[in-house]
TrEMBL record:
Pfam families, per the entry: Amidohydro_1
GO molecular function, one term: hydrolase activity, acting on carbon-nitrogen (but not peptide) bonds
Domain of life: Bacteria
Full protein name: Amidohydrolase
Annotated source species: Acidaminococcus fermentans (strain ATCC 25085 / DSM 20731 / CCUG 9996 / CIP 106432 / VR4)
Classification via SUPFAM superfamilies: Composite domain of metallo-dependent hydrolases, Metallo-dependent hydrolases
Domain Amidohydrolase-related, chain residue ranges per copy: 303-364
Length: 364
């Protein structure tokens, strides 16, 4: 396929009108004018084209709206420590939320366990197109879910001291296991080995300022790779976070009401403050916010002062990097997956449905 006259909005590249050549599901070439004999040629007449959008924190296919607790597979309730749980064993691609996400231009997302448990299980990175999850997976385990604060407190009637102690004790066990060449196989400890070695990130649910600081303290103690997810009250410790620009911040869900105590800092003004001077991701935490509203979240951040380019990066290349799949998705470049979205008007600035969405070169 050859897409002609695309008004390209692509992170890290100059703006302009380009042709995009797609072959075998990959981008073959991007140039101001391409001479090629293709069976299908689509002239988009200078409409906007972006990479497929990416969300680095959802529960897509694990917790569905309209289906009740019977189909809620995001929280394993038998243990406060459940690292052996794998998202890919419960993600249901037949859920209608996948189609809704695709139609809105979201082509890749993270999906994984919820925040009931201190260690919740293995997060996956998936495409939003397909009916067999194994065919959709980019990485079946890119991060280990961890949670601090209100949710594990309520779920297990513990305190913040108890949560931190539980986490530290388990990390000590995992460290000893990883360092012992003669260890006996343990289903819970084995998936923690790449976390201890810094090969996989600890993906930490933390809304309140106190939990944000605790997350950093414990991860520094064990020299872990980690992300801070939600960071709703992060503006209260803005100076602390500004000293650590290397820590990925996954901000959201910001659209919607403040439904519990630890969401008192929720605002797009605070998102803009936290994003200043660093790369961030905007997240929906779907189905908390429906995944198809990710472009709306980007637009609201722009309305409160986030530069357009930074907002575009926050829903494309930044989450791709956080998940370690930037070699395939996140921006448009030769050799990458042909995941792209065509928009009639400038995306995020105007609320709209995409004109067309392509995932690996297939129009969906």
């Amino acid at each position: 396929m050859l897409i002609r006259n695309a008004n390209l909005l692509n992170p890290g590249t100059e703006r302009g009108i380009y042709d995009i050549l797609i072959r075998e599901g990959k981008i073959a070439r991007i140039a101001p004018h391409i001479e090629a004999e293709e069976e299908v040629e689509l002239d988009v007449q200078e409409m906007y084209v972006t990479p497929g959008l990416v969300d680095a924190h959802t529960h897509l296919g694990l917790k569905a709206d309209s289906q009740g607790e019977f189909y809620a597979d995001h929280n394993e309730k038998k243990s406060i420590l459940s690292p052996e749980m794998r998202a890919i064993d419960a993600i249901n691609p037949q859920n209608v939320n996948f189609e809704e996400a695709r139609k809105a231009g979201i082509t890749t997302c993270a999906s994984g366990p919820g925040s009931l448990n201190v260690i919740g299980g293995q997060y996956a990175c998936i495409k939003t197109l397909g009916h067999i999850v194994d065919d959709m997976v980019l990485d079946p385990y890119f991060a280990m879910k961890c949670a601090l604060g209100e949710n594990p407190k309520k779920g297990y009637e513990t305190t913040r001291m108890g949560i931190a102690a539980t986490l530290r004790n388990f990390l000590f066990q995992a460290k000893a296991y990883a360092e012992d060449p003669n260890h006996k196989f343990d289903m819970k400890l084995e998936p923690m080995v790449p976390v201890i070695r810094g090969e996989k990130a600890l993906k930490i649910h933390c809304h309140e300022a106190i939990d944000i600081v605790t997350a950093v303290r414990i991860c520094d103690e064990f020299h872990l790779k980690f992300t801070l997810d939600h960071v709703t009250c992060g503006a209260e410790v803005l100076d602390f976070l500004q000293k650590r620009p290397e820590i990925p911040l996954l901000l959201g869900p910001t659209l919607g009401h403040r439904g519990k105590v630890e969401l008192h800092g929720k605002s797009f003004e605070n998102v803009v403050k936290l994003a200043e001077g660093r790369d961030v991701c905007l997240i929906t935490d779907a189905p908390v916010i429906p995944l198809e509203y990710l472009p709306v979240c980007a637009g609201l951040a722009i309305a409160k002062g986030m530069p357009y380019e930074r907002a575009l990066e926050a829903v494309t290349i930044n989450p791709a990097r956080v998940m370690g799949v930037e070699d395939r998705v996140g921006n448009l470049a030769p050799g990458k997956d042909a995941d792209l979205v065509i928009w009639k008007d400038k995306p995020f600035v105007v609320i709209q449905d995409p004109v067309a969405v392509f995932i690996e070169g297939k129009r969906v």
